[in-house]
Write a structure and sequence with these properties.
The chain is mostly helical and 100 residues long. The protein is built from 4 helices and 2 strands.
């Protein structure tokens, strides 16, 4: 797991590599100012940190599947004396761990 400083350094390098960057102001294309580049670095660094710390939540939501599908798994597990649902949930958690 990367530190916030490591992620910020990565973000800084990505912005540097993407130069020149442009913005649209009053229908005019202008290159970012030094302040714009500085803010872009901060924003990207914060995004990378939040993704590392909390990205697993969205990934799990998508991987779990719908409540309907989960209930169906539970029903068939009860009928067939299987553990499909428990195995599925364990796999999702394993594939998308919480950060330490």
């Amino acid at each position: 797991m990367a530190t916030k400083e490591e992620l910020q350094a990565l973000a800084d390098q990505e912005i540097e590599d993407a130069k020149p960057m442009y913005k649209q102001v009053n229908n005019e294309r202008m290159e970012f100012s030094d302040d714009d580049y500085a803010q872009a670095k901060i924003d990207l660094g914060n995004h990378k940190w939040e993704q590392q710390q909390f990205g697993y939540i969205q990934a799990r939501k998508e991987a779990y599947g719908s409540i309907t599908d989960q209930l169906d798994m539970q029903y068939w597990d009860a009928v067939n004396d299987t553990t499909t649902w428990k195995d599925h949930i364990a796999q999702v958690k394993s594939d998308n761990p919480k950060p330490s």
